[in-house]
Amino acid sequence: KAGVTQTPRYLIKTRGQQVTLSCSPISGHRSVSWYQQTPGQGLQFLFEYFSETQRNKGNFPGRFSGRQFSNSRSEMNVSTLELGDSALYLCASSLSRAGNTIYFGEGSWLTVV
Amino acid sequence: TQLLEQSPQFLSIQEGENLTVYCNSSSVFSSLQWYRQEPGEGPVLLVTVVTGGEVKKLKRLTFQFGDARKDSSLHITAAQPGDTGLYLCAGLNSGAGSYQLTFGKGTKLSVIP
Q: Is the N-terminal amide bond of B8 cis, ω within 30° of 0?
């Protein structure tokens, strides 16, 4: 079965712009989470969505937001981009909120210049 | 805030050697997962351990979950160049209705032919 699909894979944005990243979970998976990965901080939790509702949010500023649609696909948005937002953004899906098996997509590489 | 300390941070060994990577925390996790990540790709799930004291084997890789579910180890026997990559441990916190992974900073393994 198809894995977690993230688009776009690579993008370059200018400071102050906004960006929207998309994630299609594995078919049948209803829980979607987002993580930011940087060389200095490693992987850090951004949000968790289930049944179109944000269930949990990590310690990130309000410029980071997201949503989940009825088909479980999810988007995350970052507004007023800063240089420090340059990172690999990873989406993960699992069957349910209590699912112990979590699968990651290949990520979206964001570079802010 | 739950933290996972992973050690060593970097490891460079010769092909055929054995190695162990450690993942320690003062917190209890409902499960612990090990991932391997290649440059430019998302983490790929290797194993999930759920029960304290559990041992799982995946070919030359042996994973152990501590009795108290606070720590884990990954042992690789007779390492191969194909084992090269970033190994990440992640604890799943499912307390208080929250479902998120807390990641260690990772162990970057290089296996020299």
A: yes
A7-41 tens-digit pLDDT: 999 999 999 999 999 999 999 999 999 999 998 88
What residues of A are in the B interface, CB distance below 8 Å? 4, 6, 31, 33, 35, 42-45, 48, 55-56, 58, 90, 92, 97-98, 100-107, 109
Other C-beta atoms lying within 10 Å of the C-beta of residue A16 = 10
From the list A89, A94, A12, A3, the residue with the least C-alpha distance to A43 is A89
Question: Residues of B at the A interface (Cβ-Cβ below 8 Å)?
Answer: 30-31, 33, 35, 40-45, 48, 50, 88, 90, 92, 94, 97-106
Q: Mutation test of the interface with chain A: which of B101, B102, B105, B108, choosing the one with the most A Cβ atoms within 10 A?
A: B101
pLDDT in tens, B74-109: 999 999 999 999 999 998 876 656 677 889 999 999
- Closest alpha carbon to A89 in A74, A101, A106: A106
Which tokens sit at B50? 């759920």
Phi, psi of B56 (to 5 degrees): -125, 145
Sorted by sequence, the CB contacts under 8 Å of residue A67 that are 6+ apart come out as A49, A52, A54, A74, A75
Instruction: Report the alpha-carbon distance of residue B47 to residue A24 in Å, rounded.
Output: 23
Q: Which residue of B has its CA nearest to A47?
A: B100
Work out the burial of residue B76: count CB atoms within 10 Å of its CB; fewer than 13 is exposed, 13-18 middle, 19 or more buried: buried
